């Protein structure tokens, strides 16, 4: 593939489709298990609410342990090579779930699974940043992350259907198949010529924090941490919450409403980012997410939950691609892998800490209080975004004007 093809303005190329579908199947596996493994821990293994959250947290622990190195590995050894290698481990971890009926063993598999996911998601996101046209990066990354949103639609619903119909064997077997699809699609991907000699992009140097973390991506990554902290309450506890409300059948429809709004808004989100300002997405997105979370905490009927899912989906659909694209945009071109790794490191830390801490809040109070606390926590993302990104951006403008 020639470089000219990448800058020609076309997003929907064969490599882009292969990459997006590979990412879709990886996230489908993730969302299937994220909403059902807590139920497996509770109903089959007899686990507590804290242990239900722990099965999510330890997935993130494995993710976080490898995420700081993943960006450097991707830039150093090659994006496709690291994508294929990590997805192969992802497939092996999916295989190891079958027949695992002890909590300690399950948690070990979760760590391995999370580690491979951390490297794979960094590699695929960095590839996406390379193969979409520079002039349409916000739109292209938005479409790429849309496939994750589609997985968010199908994954929880499919996981719950399989769990309710056939139990863990059908659930874990399907997870194994979709992880294999992700690996095979990544293997079929043809990379741009400049990615075939990655050692030229990042020479061998000693390990330092600057080689593990992209500092320019830190402000938006911290905002992503807070968003993920709050979002973890949905995947970890929504199923149990709806059972408590005697609305168990609404869970899959909640996630469908959540993700459908993400998909429907995605074309507009990318164009707003490219043509106007990220601020037009960040602040409204935060407000919508808070409103939806408050509505979840006060829900009395299934319709209230569905409305909350739609509102939160619109907010989350604006925030995630905005933050992700901004992290890569702020970094030098040769450090997009590090920027991607930095963003997802903080995002995953927020997701892991959130599922555990909010689980403790739910155990000490109730689910309504926990969701209300999650809505308040999201406010911190607006503060972080303004103080460390928006205000800093405003302070640079007079300096640039004076220099001109």
From TrEMBL:
Compartment list: Cell membrane
Molecular function GO terms recorded: transmembrane transporter activity
Residue stretches making up the Major facilitator superfamily (MFS) profile domain: 15-393
Chain ranges passing through the membrane: 12-32, 52-70, 82-101, 141-163, 169-189, 217-238, 250-268, 280-297, 303-323, 343-363, 369-388
Domain of life from the UniProt record: Bacteria
Record key words, sorted: Membrane, Transmembrane, Transmembrane helix, Transport
Matching InterPro entries: MFS (IPR011701), MFS_dom (IPR020846), MFS_Exporter (IPR052714), MFS_trans_sf (IPR036259)
Chief localization: membrane
Keyword Aminoacyl-tRNA synthetase: no
Pfam families: MFS_1
Annotated membrane topology: Multi-pass membrane protein
Gene3D superfamilies (alphabetical): MFS general substrate transporter like domains
Any one Gene Ontology cellular component term annotated for this protein: plasma membrane
Name listed for the protein in its UniProt record: MFS transporter
Organism, scientific name: Paenibacillus piri
């Amino acid at each position: 593939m020639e470089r000219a093809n990448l800058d020609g303005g076309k997003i929907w190329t064969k490599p882009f489709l292969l990459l997006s579908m590979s990412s879709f199947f990886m996230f489908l596996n993730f969302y299937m298990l994220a909403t059902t493994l807590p139920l497996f821990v509770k109903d089959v293994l007899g686990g507590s609410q804290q242990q239900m959250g722990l099965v999510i947290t330890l997935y993130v622990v494995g993710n976080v342990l490898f995420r700081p190195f993943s960006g450097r590995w991707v830039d150093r050894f090659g994006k496709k090579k690291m994508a294929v290698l990590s997805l192969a481990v992802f497939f092996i971890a999916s295989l190891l779930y079958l027949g695992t009926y002890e909590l300690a063993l399950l948690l070990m598999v979760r760590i391995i699974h999370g580690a491979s996911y951390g490297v794979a998601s960094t590699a695929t996101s960095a590839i996406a940043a390379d193969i979409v046209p520079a002039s349409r990066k916000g739109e292209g990354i938005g479409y790429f992350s849309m496939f994750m949103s589609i997985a968010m639609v199908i994954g929880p619903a499919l996981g719950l259907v399989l769990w309710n119909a056939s139990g863990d064997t059908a659930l874990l077997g399907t997870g194994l198949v979709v992880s294999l699809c992700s690996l095979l699609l990544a293997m079929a991907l043809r990379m741009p010529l400049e990615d075939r000699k990655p050692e030229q992009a990042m020479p061998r140097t000693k390990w330092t924090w600057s080689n593990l973390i992209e500092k320019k991506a830190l402000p938006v990554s911290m905002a992503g941490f807070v968003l993920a902290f709050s979002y973890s309450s949905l995947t970890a506890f929504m199923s149990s919450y709806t059972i408590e409300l005697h609305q168990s059948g609404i869970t899959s429809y909640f996630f469908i409403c959540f993700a459908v709004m993400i998909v429907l808004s995605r074309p507009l989100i990318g164009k707003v980012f490219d043509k106007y300002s990220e601020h037009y997405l960040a602040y409204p997105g935060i407000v919508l997410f808070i409103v939806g979370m408050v509505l979840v905490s006060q829900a009395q009927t299934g319709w209230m939950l569905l409305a909350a899912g739609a509102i939160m989906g619109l907010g989350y659909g604006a925030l995630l691609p905005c933050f992700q694209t901004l992290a890569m945009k702020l970094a030098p071109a040769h450090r997009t892998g590090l920027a991607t790794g930095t963003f997802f490191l903080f995002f995953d830390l927020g997701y892991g800490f959130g599922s555990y801490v909010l689980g403790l809040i739910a155990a000490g109070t109730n689910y309504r209080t926990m969701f209300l606390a999650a809505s308040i926590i999201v406010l911190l993302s607006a503060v972080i975004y303004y103080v460390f990104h928006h205000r800093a951006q405003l302070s640079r403008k007079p300096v640039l004007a004076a220099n001109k």
